[in-house]
Each structure stands twice: as structure tokens, then as C-alpha cells.
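Annex B, item 7. Sequence and C-alpha cells for protein A, then protein B.
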Amino acid sequence: MKLRIGIPKGSLQEATLQLFAQAGLQIHTNARSYFAATGDAEIECMLIRAQEMARYVEHGALDAGLTGFDWVIESGLTVETVANLSYAKQSRGKVRWVLAVPESSSYHRPEDLSGCIIATELVNVTKSYFHSRNVNVRVEFSWGATEVKPPMLADAIVEVTETGSSLRANHLRIMDTVLESNTQVIANKTSWADSAKRRKIENLALMLRGAMEAKDKVGLMLNVRKEDLDGVLGVLPALKRPTISTLSDPEWLAVNTVIEESTAWEVIPRLKEAKAQGIVEYPLNKVVM
């Protein structure tokens, strides 16, 4: 069995390759080829633009792929959603497609844009957005550099943003959120019905989710006397409940847990004050819930 996976080429590419590596699957790309080798003999990859991923998955050229929810909706095609992975080019959160106008614009509501030109890559979603509000606009496909088009080439734009910094740099004001999106693992319906391929795709999604869960978290190990255990547990913000095991000395216990990396700075000194000893912080690759 051979499973062909689509990797989003472009802005999501580097973040996706890093996520696969953390999940345990190295993907070896070549700048001159759209095909990529992997450390799993049963998996081969193709680099495909996220905007086109749903098409090739739905047609069966790919068994599965990673792309944004936005491009699945935009395509109007039917694919199997296997997993949601909240990561983007710069962050772990969702991205937003927003309706934006120049800061100096007199438009303040979507309804104010009746009869106007809207530039965007997300044409179908934008048309549906205005149609649902009974606002008649002209939606034009933008080939890029969408932020620079108002006010000369368009009255407003619908553009994707993570932080809003690019919009602000181009003196644009966000009027409304059109769509929120996150990265998804999607699968071809026929491949999903194949038990062997489905298991492989599910395992892939499991490992990717585990790698996502491990981001920004660290493991923590420590030793504590039984009489001081309650004080230590009162400090720990545990993932669920910490693992507690006995040591060779029956008066001592070992505690193992997972915490947010950002809290370690405050938690470790407090653990020391609570009489914990042998405190070890270690990185995580995967956390499988």
C-alpha cells in the first residue's frame, strides 16, 4: 500500500514540515521537485498549493492532504475531515478572513458597500457573505498584494490575517470577520473507505495532533517526601492528574506531570519552596490525549 499525502506549498509549508518532524516523520524536500520522500516507505508526499488541495484530494490524485478550512469551503468539494490542527504560518491559533477598508473610508458597515468592488482570493465565500446580507457587490479575484488595492483598484478587500499587522501597515481598517479558518487533515472519500489507508491516515492525524499538543508544554519530574506531597500537588497545574510512583525509599515519591512551558518560570521555584527535590524539566515531542 502506498499513501500519497499533500503538503501545502507556500506560507504553510515550513510550519507543516516542522510539525511532521516533531510528530516523528521526516519529509525530505527538493527545491527542484514537487515530490518529497519520507522516512516511511508507505508514505510519499507532494507539495501542492493549499488553495488547490481539496480538488486533488477529492479527485483521488491524493489520498489525504493538509489545507485550510477556508480553501475546503471555497472549493465547494466534498472531502472527509479527519482532524483539525490549529496552526498557521506564525502562530498556533486560527486565522481570520476579514473585510477591510482604508482607514479614511466613509464605509463602516458591510451594508455601506452596496455597488462597490471587493478584491479577494476567497471569491465564493465572499460572494456568499454579501449574498446572506442582501448586499449587491462586485467581487473580483485578486492574484496577490490585495492589501494595496484599496482605494484605487477596489473599495474594500477580504483578506486573511493572523495578527492584523499587514493590514495596519497598509492603513486598512477591519470592518468585519467573514470567516475563521484553521488547518485541517482532509481525506479522499474512497481512500477513507479503504481500511488499510484509513488506519494509516488516522495514525498520521493522531501523531500530528500529539505534536500539536506538545507545543508550548514541558514535562516535569521531581521527588518529594510523602509528608510533603499535598504541598507539591497544590503547586502543580497538572494536565489531568500527575503520575505518582514510589521510590526505593518508602518515605519518598516520584511525581511526573506536564505543564505549560510559560508557567515553569514560576512553578519550579514554588515547588522547591514546597520541599520538592531533584526537579527536572524536559522537552516533549508528542502528547497523545
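Protein B:
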Amino acid sequence: MLLLTTATAATAQQVYEQVRSKALTVASNPNANPMLKQINQFKVDALNYMGMKMREQMPDTTAVFLDKQAYAMNNFMSFYMRTIIENQKQPAAFQVKLIKLFMDASYSNPLFNDPDQELVLSYFSDGNSLTRFSLDTDWQRAYIAVSKEIQKIK
């Protein structure tokens, strides 16, 4: 049983590190598309924030938790990009509505309830950012929330 638990924790940490490593590779590549760099920089910052806050506030939590959040964040970001691309020919007002649904899902589902709003909302408040999401997000809940809202408007 202990061996199985250790193997699961190692795998979980590997998933978190794999998502982070891939995002860091793109974000630091000077030849990468600027939009991809910006998206991947958000992923790196969100994962770094999540790892830091987890160690501070939830030191007894297993790496499986971090793995699930990293996986959900990656899925949220993929869903966001896919939704924006699929709806690029829609009227601008509809596109803005979609973006706001994703922003709201991120903002309305905090994971740590971090009082440092300047840090947490650094991307959210940046009108030039493609990834206007809160760093303090429970990505599993946010993904479910935005999926339900997108279904309502289809």
C-alpha cells in the first residue's frame, strides 16, 4: 500500500512538473508566437503560485491535489482557447460575453481565498492580457462552472 501511495504521489508531481515544464519552455522561447508565450507565461505563474500557496496553506496535502489542479488548469486554458477560436466569427459582443464567462469562472472559484488581491488579480486586471484570470482559482470548479455556462448559451 505504501509503495502504491508513493508511486501515485510521484506520478502526480510529475504531471504538475510536466505541465509547468512545457509551459516554461514555450514562455521562454524567443522564437515562439507572442500569443502562445503570453498564455504559457500565465500557466507558469499560475502553477508557481499554486505550488507556493499549497506549501503555505495546505502543507499536508498530497501531490495528487496539485496534479489535479494543474491538469484542470491546463484543460480550462485549452477549453478557453478552443472556445475563442471556434467563435472568432461571432459578433464582438458575443466574444466579449464568452471571455467574461471564463473570467467570472476563474474569479468566482477561489482555492486559497488569498487576501493579496494585487497579486491574485494581476492578470485579471490587465486589459492587455489574453489570460484575464485569477491566480487564486480552484481550476476544477472553474472548469465545471464555465462548461455549464457555455452550454446555457449554445
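Comment on protein B: The two ends are 46 Å apart (CA to CA).
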